[in-house]
Prior knowledge:
homodimer; 197 residues; mainly beta
Amino acid sequence: MADTIEITPRTGTAFTLNKGQRLTVIDPKGVQVSDLVAFNRHDPEEVISNGRTLDYASRIYLTTGDPLYSNRSNVMLKIVADNTPGKHDFLLTPCSKDTFRIIYGDKDPHQGCFGNIAGAIEPYGISSDRIPCAFNCFMNVTVDSDSGELKVLPPITKAGDSIEFVAEMDLIVALTACSALQSNGGSFKPIQYKISD
Amino acid sequence: MADTIEITPRTGTAFTLNKGQRLTVIDPKGVQVSDLVAFNRHDPEEVISNGRTLDYASRIYLTTGDPLYSNRSNVMLKIVADNTPGKHDFLLTPCSKDTFRIIYGDKDPHQGCFGNIAGAIEPYGISSDRIPCAFNCFMNVTVDSDSGELKVLPPITKAGDSIEFVAEMDLIVALTACSALQSNGGSFKPIQYKISD
């Protein structure tokens, strides 16, 4: 049985995932977001792309059966199970020092998911400039059809909800326990994940 | 007075824009999209970012007064005039061979805006892997609030409508007359632009 690994609040990690392996991302306490980005392990210039994925899906909300495409229009991951109410975000970039400075007005901002991902991918030789819009597991972003207004609302996940992906190529994946208060209903919680064959 | 330059249907170009210069993108016949991407001229690893921009704007529809941010959260361009009904898209990547293969089922697909941008930025030493989601001037993409369904509808621009940007840093800009039938109301038309100090 696969080990469950915990990502402590406001941190992140990176790991490799082989083609065919499954990654389960778990929200152990509920109402917590996990940012996921993915790179082709053999050529990290190939990276997950929200624009390609949303265009081909013709939907901003993705769930079981939906492929996540790269900037080269190859499928990197596929969602194979979605044990949540089905709300994840693929519009926004990882929260960062600048997010906290611009949106929250913080004077001494946390490095956010962006900084956590940057630190986690550095050992793989990938620059922070390569960090794209993340697939934000469990993140509850609504769009008003008329005005186009975006709202970041508390996730609608319950404790133990999860989403499962299968890798469609050999990957480097970075994953966080999100650091933005607004995204997580006002408190920071851990994220868990497990990898299985 | 600034010269008006025409981009012929289904092609693209790239040019430099100095900090403080203004770029006007014109839809001379109406109902035509123009994909715009921008790179920091002194460090092309810095590139326009839809995720940063939409997050900071809290809106998917951008118009006069809105800044367009880079992946490093710096303002690259600002929209200073919007002589259109105010509908532009910043969700989708440039149409490409893969777009035409996956969405249209084309057997011998056109290279699309992606191929046109790739060719135009190559002389500046920028790889096609660096092409991000474009700011799609005049593109009419709607999002259903409930289902998240995206629809690419004909632009609502009239002949002569335009949008004007000011450069907030020295830039390389790529600009197209979009190659996707669905985005342009079923026919391919030119785009015009002019640069002024």
